[in-house]
Amino acid sequence: MRVFAKAAGWALLTLLFCASVSAQAEDVYLSVPDFLSEQYETVPKPAMLWLDEAQRKDAESVSGEDPGFRQRYWLSDQKSSWVINVIGRDHPITLGISVKDGRIAALRVLIYRESRGWEVRHPFFTRQFDQAAMDNGKLDRGIDNITGATLSVNALQRAARLALWLDSQLPQE
Amino acid sequence: MFKRTVLAMAISAVPFAAQAEQSAEDLQKQIDILAQEIESLKENGTSGSSNVLDKLSIGGYGEIHYNNYTERDNNDQIDAHRYVLYFGYDYNDKVRFFSEFELEHSLAGEGKPGEVELEQAYIEIDTTANTKLRLGQFLVPVGILNETHEPDTFYGVERNNLESKIVPATWWEAGAMFSQDLGGGLTYDIAGHSGLNMFKAGGTPNKIRSGRQKVAEANGNKGAMTGRVRYAGIPGLDMAASVQYQQDVFQAAQGFDTVSGVLVEAHARYSIAGATFTIQHAEWEFDEEIGVEAAEEQSGLMAEVSYKLTEKFGVFARHTELDWNDGGADLENTERTDSTAGVNYWIVPRVALKADYTDVHYDTDGKDNDADDNVSIGIGWSF
Question: Which helix (H) or strand (E) holds A163?
């Protein structure tokens, strides 16, 4: 036992040292300004989309998510961008989603707080949403699952449907 | 004169214009603050963003089973197999608590069939954006079902026997686990934790499953370490391999030699267009000091194919081969093959009705080959 405790103790101390050294790090993978800079050459000023009760119900029936009574968005070059929070298993996932011509132009995980399913943050997963559109109330493509992260994968699909719905509510120029 | 008047008007208009702009900004800010307050009141019934309920998460799962043994006239069973509640609390964005509290088989206590169990209770720290440290009582990072076993996430009423008898899921230990996401779908975990205790009076080994001490005043003379590497870098693919080293599964029992053990588990799962293919292998190797030659090597192999015909309805077939020790001084291990086929019907995404048939075949002398054939029906949920 002594030998094991010693080894485990050293291992733990090493880990805690690593933890203390890197405690300054953020678990934000992409900030909102960085996401917007990625989407626009010149980031437009944000605007607000106000939604009445009927619209909110419609959004929920399409996406499974209640958008609340207002959503901030950015619009330029016919491309709208949204910052959307959805619950994965029991924590919110913050996403930046851009929509152009009724299709997802980009879906990025900005903040991921769940203990499992880290893989959904990565481009190899999120690029499945590129150019996805709505088709009969669903996304027009299947999104491959990640074992152990089904709820996060489902949450990203709900957010994608919500972003497409929100874009459809913008006044047509 | 006219020029001067215009100039005077222009000069005097400047502060008003600035004031108007300032007012619009102030107005927007006020609207934002009021909107946030209204949202907070609607959601929580309180104003402000530091509501304790925002930090608390509650969830759970459960499953109720009916097992009908087709070749027996008795021992059919209806069982509220598991009822579980999760409680979590976020201290801040980087430090959180998580726990899982379980009642098995409905009734626990003296002479009752069930148990009340604390399956998980740990503090998790986001040490960096890509690393986590888990301290406390957690699920061992081995296998498919051990960490993700909500009944709506897998096929079949009962969990497969490989992850019951070889990987003794649900399997939790106490210690520390460090995890890192290396990017591109590659992650690893390394954990130091409490060990199994398979010692039985007389020095014969207990079953692996019975060796779980469940962190219940557990014998801590000897410990264990587990490492896992996982790759999920292609959508639909999940591959993982775990290795565990047990210092002494007899926990330094007086008068007995050390019995170290190594578990190797590997699995691959790939989903494409509604079909999922899974293959899994797990193998234990114990020192010969375990005292029963047959128990030195115990292993299992599982292969499963499933297909979701619709979003709500899926079918599956599973083949499991086991070679494991029942405990005691048997000269040979139990060799068993399970062939299972069945259906899952998701009433809603997190509520599943299940039905299956399992044919059990024993390659061991003295075992009734048909005794364990069964039809099972179940309902499972998580929230």
Answer: helix A150-168
